Amino acid sequence: MSTSPASLPPAWSGLLDDAAIFPPGNARLADAVESYAARSSEWYADLVGSFVCKDTDIGSLDAGMPLSIVVTGGAGAIAGALKLAGRRDHHVAGLEIALRDLDDLAGNARRVVAAVDAARSDGLLDDDTEVFVELPQTVPGAGWLGAADEVAAAELRLKFRTGGVDANLFPAAGQIASWIDAALDRETPFKCTAGLHNAVRHRDDATGFEHHGFLNVLLATGALFDGATADDAVALLESREGPALADRSSETDLAGARRWFTSFGSCSVREPLDDLLTLGLLKERP
Questions:
Q1: Which residue in 49, 44, 40, 37 sits closest to 3, CA to CA?
Q2: Contact yes or no for 31/46 (Cβ under 8 A)
Q3: How would you class 284 by CB atoms within 10 Å of its CB: exposed for 0-12, middle for 13-18, buried for 19 or more?
Q4: Going from the N-terminus, what domains does the chain have, and what CATH number goes with each?
Q5: Is this model's pTM higher than 0.85 or not?
Q6: Do residues 78 and 60 touch, judged by C-beta distance below 8 A?
Q7: Using one digit for the tens of pLDDT, what is the confidence trace for 91-129?
């Protein structure tokens, strides 16, 4: 008889990727790997998808975990990271890379697309491996939108940074709404990273930073997909009313919204889980 934990509802399955080694968690790599492995028998194991690591960490990891590899160099570093992962027999569940050429975002995106295409042609990257391209934290202008067009045309995915270790790394709700709207306009799934440890928007007591909530983002995504205005989406992103957001969740196709907002990277698993339990969106299993 299998002892594998049962799958969670589609709205929550694979909701977060384990980014324990990244700020502000900064867990030791060995400790993070041990925790990831230990979680596999827990009832909520399906909440977590891949283990997020930098390309510079690949050589220190044993095979066995699905990895989302963050490429720390430019497009030219993609092949090397994948070759090393292949030699170590890693399962590459995802590849993430940030655009760096702010003066030519569309051109930078084309270089990433070309490198990904070459990696697929060379057998370094499976056709179904998700590739996320991180766009800068700016209001979508011509260059930003041009880069999003390139990502969408290549059927890659977008990545949005929703927080960080400094206050200026937390974008305004209107900015996030415009990013989501741009992704939906292009029928392009996206993931988020940083600052979404909790379900509901709040001010962090330790830092004083305004944190966005992953439930706010999910509900805003569903609302925009259903034709809501940007103002409606901003109101959802700025709501601090957990019970009201939970009630709205029961009337929203959250699994459908997850088709677009696929996941978020989090250095904490317990915080998102506890919030889902507290809001009654998940029930603990024996």
A1: 40
A2: no
A3: exposed
A4: 16-278 (3.20.20.70)
A5: yes
A6: no
A7: 999 999 999 999 999 999 999 999 999 999 999 999 999
